[in-house]
Amino acid sequence: MEKANDSSEYAFILVGFSDRPKLEMVLFIVNFILYSVAVLGNSTIILLCVLDPRLHTPMYFFLANLSFLDLCFSTSCIPQMLVNLWGPDKTISYAGCVVQLFSFLSVGGIECILLAVMAYDRYVAVCKPLHYLVIMHPQLCLRLVAVAWGSGLVNAIVMSPLTMTLSRCDRRRVNHFLCEMPALIKMACVDARPVEMLAFTFAILIVLLPLTLILVSYGYIAAAVLRIKSAAGRRKAFNTCSSHLTVVSLFYGSIIYMYMQPGNSSSQDQGKFLTLFYNLVTPMLNPLIYTLRNKEVKGALKKVLGRQ
């Protein structure tokens, strides 16, 4: 058998958008702005949730975790992509590729499950408001977050070595702007179907199962909202959940399209832009969708800035 890890001595070439040189500078400027906004927005949310006692609630504990994950998600590949877009050098070291793949798989899996945890939090808040603080006690919140982190890390620990040790017969060109699992699997010169099937199984557990729990939670929420007689009450309940539903739709929509289909069915360019969407656009939008229009967060921000 050919030595599987023959690429460990060499760098990979991230093809990215190098076939469109005029597009590269436009993408550099746009992505730099979006990444800066994502870092600023998510860092602000984390700081506010730590500094303001009024935000020491289960909802904002989960939001702070989501913001941290979004920071990790974007930072795992966007800086490298900006370097590659800026100049002619498109290389990434083998170790850098391993770190990027592991970060991408782990953080992506954690975020999928965390969104399900947040849906359960909204279910308790809407359907059992009088018992909310009793049910969502700090120990349970920590356990739920630990399950999310543990599941994502297991996914990365299993899939990263299997993907990186596939024999590539000296192929170095990754037809993507990051070391993403589907692009690396397509480089293999051996039968990669067992790895693809295992990846599909993990996708069912980490993507579809949490999504099912989210849909069930919102089914109960919808039923509870319909039982509310006052229009103001229904509007308040809807506003409580609309932000989470928006982010779930953006994140899960692109993830499912990318990973829950046969490996060769989508074009490479389409896959690159979809990856860029959930790796940069969604983390940039999350602070705006979730909290920056929230009165409690705005109040905490004014307090930190000394305007209250």
Automatic annotation (TrEMBL):
Compartment annotation: Cell membrane
tRNA-binding listed as a keyword: no
G-protein coupled receptors family 1 profile domain residues: 41-290
One annotated Gene Ontology cellular component of this protein: plasma membrane
Record has Transmembrane as a keyword: yes
Keywords: Cell membrane, G-protein coupled receptor, Membrane, Olfaction, Receptor, Sensory transduction, Transducer, Transmembrane, Transmembrane helix
Transmembrane segments: 25-50, 62-86, 92-120, 140-158, 197-226, 238-260, 272-292
InterPro entries: GPCR_Rhodpsn, GPCR_Rhodpsn_7TM, Olfact_rcpt
Function: Putative odorant or sperm cell receptor.
Protein's name in the database: Olfactory receptor
Gene that specifies this protein: LOC106823466
